[in-house]
Amino acid sequence: MKVQKKMLGITLIVMLALSVAACGSNGQPPTFEITRQAVDISTPQQTSYAAQYQKSVFLGDSITEGLSYHDVLKQENVLAGAGKTAEFALQDVDELVKRKPEHIFIQLGSDDILWPTDNPKEYSLSYYSQLIDGIKVRLPEASITILSVTPVTAEAEKAEPRYRNIRDYNKGLKELASKVQVGYVDVSSIVADHPDMYDADGIHFQAEFYPILLDYVKNELGRQKSAK
Q1: pLDDT score, position 214
Q2: Which has the closest alpha carbon to 103: 146, 55, 42, 44?
């Protein structure tokens, strides 16, 4: 009887392990990973990015969350989650204020354009504007930069035709950035230059994409500053 119980216990453990592995097999964080504790960043490359962006916070959805999920930045420098929209991000302002960032990068929109309303772009940008206004009031000394929504693959666009609106949505983001006087960086070009870095769903990205993203953002901000 004891042997049977022991074998049953081993079987349950194996089944649990296989289940956990399957949940993470698509390269995106399983639900329980979203609230995991911060991971120590120890490689030279990761340490470099952690230092460069130690006074920054990236606010966004699951694409932005890849920065911390893939351990490119520390958890305290990323405030993001799956399904996040500009409307939902309003709830993150209190937490953002607690972190006292000097620079805030906002990358929202991938979920906004899928929102079931008559005009998702107009609906989203109205909340995007409210979000920025709220941050400016609470963190008046912080600089804010909007990052464009990353394009998806042709296959992903075919599966979800609303992704065809990404380019138009980004145009709206650029106009909004100019209107509310915050920075704007279009990251579309780096996605076009590295199509092999898409994850299996053609929407999210593999770990190798994020250092390239951070380098591009840093260089673009430097270029914009020099041009002034």
Answers
A1: 96
A2: 55
- Mean pLDDT within 16-21: 37
Distance CA 128, CA 122 (A): 10
User: In sequence order, which ranges of the chain are alpha helices (DSSP H)?
Assistant: 2-23, 44-52, 62-69, 86-89, 93-99, 120-138, 154-159, 166-180, 188-193, 209-227
Phi, psi of 57 (to 5 degrees): -135, 130
Q: Sign of dihedral through CA atoms 162, 165, 170, 172?
A: negative
Whole-number Å distance between alpha carbons of 190 and 39: 27
pLDDT at 64 exceeding the cut of 50 = yes
**What topology does CATH give the domain 37-227?**
Rossmann fold (3.40.50)
Compute the C-alpha angle 129/134/138, nearest 5°. Answer: 150
Which letter does DSSP use for residue 204 in this model? S
Name residue 31's beta-bridge partners: none
Closest CA to 149 of 119, 200, 185, 98: 185
Domain boundaries, the chain: 1-27, 37-227
Q: Answer yes or no: is pLDDT of 12 > 50.
A: no
- Write the pLDDT tens digit of every residue in 171-191: 999 999 999 999 999 999 999
